[in-house]
Amino acid sequence: MNLATLIFRSPGEYTVTLKPAAQWIPERLDNRPRFWKARAVKQSIVTLDLEGVLVPEIWIAVAERTGVKELRLTTREVPDYDELMKYRLNLLAQHGLTLSLIQDVIGTLEPLPGGKEFLAELRSLTQVIILSDTFEEFAKPLMRQLDWPAIFCHRLEVENDRITNYRLRLSNQKQKAVAAFKSLNYHIIAAGDAFNDTAMLGEAHVGFLFRSPLAVQQQFPQFKALESYEELLTLIKANLA
Ligand SMILES: [Mg+2]
Predict the structure, then answer these.
(1) Model's pTM, two decimal places?
(2) What are the φ and ψ backbone dihedral angles of 115, each rounded to 5 degrees?
(3) Potential cystine with 42: which of 78, 162, 193, 241 (Cβ 3.0-4.6 Å)?
């Protein structure tokens, strides 16, 4: 028997059944606030990669300035980030390249043409968080030029101006950040250019490859590949919750 159903019996076996409260209240007397009945409302966050999407590749600039050609390799070519970073740190040590020299190089970089305007317009429409595998020590001069957007990245270990190691705050942080935002009931639209973005794009509700190399596009055909900020902005707008 339904526990919410109460049965009273009179001596003459007359039975009165009361329905459960929610069914029993006629619609016009139901004065519960409307939002009790509404579905939870979705809001959006856009997560963007930094290098190759908003600013040039930092390590390519360092390779050009220092003449150490091997530093040109990036996450666009090497899927394993740990392997890539160890390779870079060894090269820095071999060539005696200091943190201040690299920061000088970064100080000369500017956002990609149109990148600053794209980000400003996007931030006027929705929340934007940059998810990058760069380091706080490298990002700062670029964040200043982009009017200080929120960025989640990593940190370096430095001794006497020499970069001795790097500290990932969290492995696979791009994908995990998107998963965490989703658990807060956000609708996530993500864009990135390289192998280290694909887990983020896969975790997001909508993922775009932006100016990404052919090898990445061929390996991940499930993500629409875009080339212009205009196109990216239009598609992000169309997918906002
Ligand atoms: Mg990138």
Answers:
(1) 0.79
(2) -65, -40
(3) 241
